[in-house]
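Problem: given the chain below (226 residues), write out its structure.
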Amino acid sequence: MRVLVVEDEHDIASVLLDYLRHAGFEAEHIADGRAALARLQADPPDLTLLDVMLPGLDGLSILRRLRPHDSHPVILVTARVEELDRLLGLELGADDYICKPFSPREVVARVRAVLRRSRPAADAAARPALVLGAQDWSASLLGQPLSLTRREFRLLQALARQSGRLFSRAQLLDLAYEDTQDVNERAVDSHIKNLRRKLAAAGPGREWIRSVYGVGFAFDPAPEPG
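Solution.
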């Protein structure tokens, strides 16, 4: 699979290219934002590692222009760790977020995880792990019934509609709750905790809902690599 590394720090890019190629990926590198946007629009790769701070055009602007027409996975890579920057990246459609400094091995693992979620196996697509019945509010995981409240159901449904995508608490409030006047972001944490407990009972040994501190949550039905 092809991975495009968009990074203006050549030392960092060189290390990422080495690790990605060693892991079996076909990795390319572009250092300029405008050149990267042109390349992505003309021939998108299987996944892009996109630095936020770039010459010519910054990574968030690239993502903003790219997303209306292209949905290939994008992982943002940046030294800007503020929560606002992370949330903005998610709002624009980033699939994951890695903060510098990072371990190259972690980057490779994140690349594999995002690709795995974006390209589910044919048999998994035919027999999804999670089945939700919108008409009767029924839910099952791996064939095991789940007893969910309506709010838990709506929250899980919102997460599962775009498996693997990170959602902020504010996004989940908008997507999962009909009336947000009587709930706040802490309610999301409480319902996520209950969902995790129920999902773990039906499918033990897995973290079905992944969390990123200060960012949000994602439903991750793909098995972890052995």
